[in-house]
TrEMBL record:
<feature type="transmembrane region" description="Helical">
    <location>
        <begin position="339"/>
        <end position="358"/>
    </location>
</feature>
<comment type="function">
    <text>Receptor for CM101, a polysaccharide produced by group B Streptococcus with antipathoangiogenic properties.</text>
</comment>
<dbReference type="Pfam" id="PF07690">
    <property type="entry name" value="MFS_1"/>
</dbReference>
<keyword id="KW-1133">Transmembrane helix</keyword>
<feature type="transmembrane region" description="Helical">
    <location>
        <begin position="404"/>
        <end position="425"/>
    </location>
</feature>
<feature type="transmembrane region" description="Helical">
    <location>
        <begin position="178"/>
        <end position="198"/>
    </location>
</feature>
<keyword id="KW-0472">Membrane</keyword>
<dbReference type="GO" id="GO:0030672">
    <property type="term" value="C:synaptic vesicle membrane"/>
</dbReference>
<keyword id="KW-0769">Symport</keyword>
<keyword id="KW-0325">Glycoprotein</keyword>
<keyword id="KW-0458">Lysosome</keyword>
<dbReference type="GO" id="GO:0016323">
    <property type="term" value="C:basolateral plasma membrane"/>
</dbReference>
<protein>
    <recommendedName>
        <fullName>Sialin</fullName>
    </recommendedName>
</protein>
<feature type="transmembrane region" description="Helical">
    <location>
        <begin position="315"/>
        <end position="333"/>
    </location>
</feature>
<feature type="transmembrane region" description="Helical">
    <location>
        <begin position="59"/>
        <end position="80"/>
    </location>
</feature>
<dbReference type="InterPro" id="IPR050382">
    <property type="entry name" value="MFS_Na/Anion_cotransporter"/>
</dbReference>
<keyword id="KW-0813">Transport</keyword>
């Protein structure tokens, strides 16, 4: 089925952008580690190739997000006009080209590297809003969870693969090889995306008549040319803000660990660089597995009529946040390396169930505006990527176990707040202000009769 080809290619797209994003977290460990240098006169000393302290490293690691935050809303708006498929591909390709230039920028100096990472963020910032524009054409309502989570799983699979791969590349060929290998891979993916994926099902020459009919009938009119955005209603909608707060909370924990976990494992758990890469990838391996499971399970509850959309989103999202709060506190108080690693794996892995909650909730409450809503949410959800590495850089200076406990305490508290806010205000129902056409109004009435489900004809087709 062609919609699953789209989801699979989107999976590898997110795989690529997260490999391009996380590579510096591993590379910077190699770039700043003390190395034994023997001079011609026999003097032996320890030197760093790049003598950056923890504060400077925090600014470098967060610089990506300075650019990333600027194109979230703009990316969602442009995606609905020029096409999500086109803009998504260009975002990945441009990031890949800039990644190939990273070693040159690093050797030019700290400010050149920061500027380049900001540019990477600008181009990668359009990708998440764009994918919701793609799903607005390709994802039938009863398959939104599984298609979206299949694609989003690529983010964590990319992290899983890139962390140990970056460590190995740094050990064998030097840290510059990290950026060359993944930059080339990104350009290869883009060439496949252009050839294999169409903007809409109606433009896909390989789609079957049956699948085309099923998608178009289940989605109704998805023509975006005459969309008018009810901005006042959007910014005053509590279901929208519940998604924003949940996304912010999940990203705080994710970006904290994404940028700081290699350092924590090296400084506190005393792993060498190669082992750090493998161990830091384990939590994301758990998440990549559970994320695909969460989407299937969420849609199963909907198809069986066991839970309505609102209940599925709340149970999955808040259950994940509670689990993350518990295990993040467990990490803070862990007394052994084994317990610390297990708690981190559980905290990140169980967090995958939240993505069957907030991450597809935009499509429930306002499918015609989903890419713009994702852009708004991801704008706020990018702030943790800016603030968290800098905050960690100021807190963790010695480094000591007590300093890292502060980092974990803050993360646990944010998870808990996100859980309470989402449970109170989230909804899975099409909002009144999102009813752009009679087609959408009709589908909304059917959804209400079926507790958030699509009509019976579409269920029978499944």
């Amino acid at each position: 089925m062609r919609r699953y080809v789209v989801a699979t290619m989107a999976f590898f797209g997110f795989f690529t952008i997260y490999a391009l994003r996380v590579n510096l977290s591993i590379a910077i460990v190699a770039m700043t580690e003390n190395k034994t240098v023997v001079y011609e006169n026999g003097t032996v000393t320890l030197e760093q190739e790049f003598p950056w302290d923890s504060v400077v490293q925090g600014y470098i690691l967060s610089s990506f997000f300075y650019g990333y935050i600027t194109t979230q809303l703009v990316g969602g708006w442009f995606a609905m006009r020029m096409g999500g498929k086109k803009l998504y591909g260009l975002g990945v390709a441009a990031t890949a080209v800039l990644t190939l230039m990273t070693p040159l920028a690093a050797n030019m100096g700290m400010f050149a590297l920061i500027f380049l990472r900001i540019l990477e963020g600008v181009f990668e910032g359009v990708t998440y809003p764009c994918i919701h524009a793609v799903w607005s054409h390709w994802a039938p309502p009863l398959e939104r969870s599984r298609l979206a989570t299949l694609a989003f799983t690529g983010s964590y699979a990319g992290t899983v693969v890139s962390m140990p791969a970056c460590a190995i590349l740094a050990e064998l060929f030097g840290w510059p090889s990290i950026f060359y290998v993944f930059g080339i891979f990104g350009l290869f993916w883009y060439s496949l995306w252009v050839v294999l994926i169409a903007e809409k099902p109606s433009e896909d020459p390989l789609i079957s008549d049956e699948e085309l009919r099923y998608i178009t009938q289940s989605l109704g009119d998805t023509n975006e040319k005459n969309i008018k955005y009810p901005w006042r209603s959007i910014v005053t909608s509590m279901p929208v803000w519940s998604i924003v707060v949940a996304h912010f909370s999940e990203n705080w924990g994710f970006y904290t660990l994404l940028t700081q976990l290699p350092k924590y494992m090296k400084d506190i758990l005393d792993f060498d660089l190669a082992k750090t890469g493998f161990m830091a990838a384990l939590p994301y391996l758990a998440m990549s597995i559970t994320l695909a499971l969460s989407g299937q399970l969420a849609d199963w509850f909907l198809v069986r009529g066991i839970l309505n959309v609102t209940q599925v989103r709340k149970f999955f999202n808040c259950g994940a946040f509670i689990a993350q709060t518990v295990f993040m506190m467990g990490t803070a108080y862990a007394t052994s390396t084994t317990v610390s690693v297990i708690c981190l794996i559980m905290a990140v892995g169980l967090g995958a169930f939240a993505w069957a909650g907030f991450s597809v909730n935009h499509l429930d409450i306002a499918p015609q505006h989903a890419s713009v809503l994702m852009g708004i949410g991801n704008t706020f959800a990018t702030l943790p990527g800016i603030v968290s590495p800098i905050l960690s850089g100021y807190v963790v200076t010695t480094p000591t176990k007590g300093e890292w406990q502060i980092v974990f305490f803050v993360t646990a508290g944010i998870y808990l707040f996100g859980c309470l806010f989402y449970w109170t205000f989230a909804s899975g129902e099409l909002q009144d202000w999102a009813k752009e056409s009679e087609t959408l109004k009709t589908r909304s009435a059917v959804n209400a009769d079926n507790k958030g489900m699509t009509n019976e004809g579409f269920q029978h087709e499944l």
